[in-house]
């Protein structure tokens, strides 16, 4: 039956385990390079906590930002122009993508092991179909929960920073299996998609998925997504620079840079005690102040 994505992920898991034994450990040691804008406190701490004590005060955060600003100022004139800003973010984005790729490949081992229930080192069609039934059941639940409003968190597409659709969310489930784009996923539609996924992953056509096949399918899909992402224009980065350059002179000073830094720090410091730590991650975020930043809900058909 179904689970092309799962199949790809599973295959990757085993392959990674066998071919890249240090992948999982490497992924765990990596610090995030992008994100942590204050809405995700855990990520915020992980990105800016240079001394690794699990918390941040303003001095440590300000020092981190000063170091990044100075590194961005490639001509060392004390300010950052738009081209320097774009170049630094592009380089950091490439590094973050490589980091995310390593992390996602490491996860394929876990998925493969979960699907290989008899632990013979292969995913049979029976095992693949059993997983597909679970995916269909859980995916249908996400659509129902989204329709009745009981869990709006399921709306996100998932897939990390690379945006690969994830069947654990309603939008991801639709992206993977709603082949006729009617906003629903029928059992027949799901089964056909899963058939295609299994056939595509089973490269040697022996009726089972090996670790290498699983890894190869997922790697191909992941790298295609990375290539697509690399074609995106840097428009948003340039817009962000204009927002930071408060006096619009084309040269951003560190003081201008830290206007947004202070806003990020204050958003993460939800207890308002001057320290960002794990306690802040347990507290609710302040309401969004700018209407333009509110999440837009795409229209979706409901089940008849």
UniProtKB/TrEMBL annotation:
<dbReference type="InterPro" id="IPR018247">
    <property type="entry name" value="EF_Hand_1_Ca_BS"/>
</dbReference>
<keyword id="KW-0479">Metal-binding</keyword>
<dbReference type="Pfam" id="PF13202">
    <property type="entry name" value="EF-hand_5"/>
</dbReference>
<dbReference type="InterPro" id="IPR002048">
    <property type="entry name" value="EF_hand_dom"/>
</dbReference>
<dbReference type="Pfam" id="PF13499">
    <property type="entry name" value="EF-hand_7"/>
</dbReference>
<keyword id="KW-0677">Repeat</keyword>
<protein>
    <submittedName>
        <fullName>EF-hand domain-containing protein</fullName>
    </submittedName>
</protein>
<feature type="domain" description="EF-hand">
    <location>
        <begin position="36"/>
        <end position="71"/>
    </location>
</feature>
<keyword id="KW-0732">Signal</keyword>
<feature type="domain" description="EF-hand">
    <location>
        <begin position="103"/>
        <end position="138"/>
    </location>
</feature>
<feature type="signal peptide">
    <location>
        <begin position="1"/>
        <end position="24"/>
    </location>
</feature>
<dbReference type="GO" id="GO:0005509">
    <property type="term" value="F:calcium ion binding"/>
</dbReference>
<dbReference type="InterPro" id="IPR011992">
    <property type="entry name" value="EF-hand-dom_pair"/>
</dbReference>
<feature type="domain" description="EF-hand">
    <location>
        <begin position="232"/>
        <end position="267"/>
    </location>
</feature>
């Amino acid at each position: 039956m179904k689970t092309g994505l799962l199949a790809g992920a599973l295959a990757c898991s085993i392959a990674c385990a066998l071919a890249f034994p240090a992948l999982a450990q490497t992924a765990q040691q990596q610090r995030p390079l992008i994100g942590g804008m204050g809405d995700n406190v855990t990520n915020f701490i992980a990105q800016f906590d240079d001394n690794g004590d699990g918390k941040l005060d303003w001095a440590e955060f300000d020092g981190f930002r000063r170091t990044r600003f100075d590194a961005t100022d490639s001509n060392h004139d004390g300010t950052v122009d738009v081209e320097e800003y774009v170049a630094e973010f592009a380089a950091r984005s490439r590094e973050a993508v490589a980091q995310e790729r390593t992390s996602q490949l490491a996860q394929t081992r876990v998925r493969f092991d979960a699907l290989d229930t008899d632990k013979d080192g292969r995913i049979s069609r029976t095992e693949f179909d059993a997983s597909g039934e679970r995916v269909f059941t859980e995916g249908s639940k996400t659509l129902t929960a989204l329709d009745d409003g009981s869990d709006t968190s399921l709306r996100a597409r998932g897939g990390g920073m690379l945006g690969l659709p994830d069947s654990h969310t309603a939008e991801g489930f639709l992206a993977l299996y709603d082949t006729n784009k009617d906003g629903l996923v029928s059992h027949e539609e799901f089964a056909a998609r899963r058939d295609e996924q299994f056939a595509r992953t089973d490269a040697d056509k022996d009726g089972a998925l090996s670790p290498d096949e699983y890894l190869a399918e997922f790697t191909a899909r992941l790298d295609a997504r990375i290539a697509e992402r690399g074609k995106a224009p840097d428009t948003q980065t340039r817009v962000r620079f204009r927002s930071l350059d408060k006096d619009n002179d084309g040269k951003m000073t560190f003081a201008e840079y830290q206007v947004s830094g202070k806003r990020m720090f204050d958003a993460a410091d939800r207890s308002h005690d001057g320290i960002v730590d794990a306690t802040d991650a347990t507290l609710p975020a302040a309401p969004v102040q700018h209407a333009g930043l509110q999440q837009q809900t795409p229209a979706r058909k409901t089940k008849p």
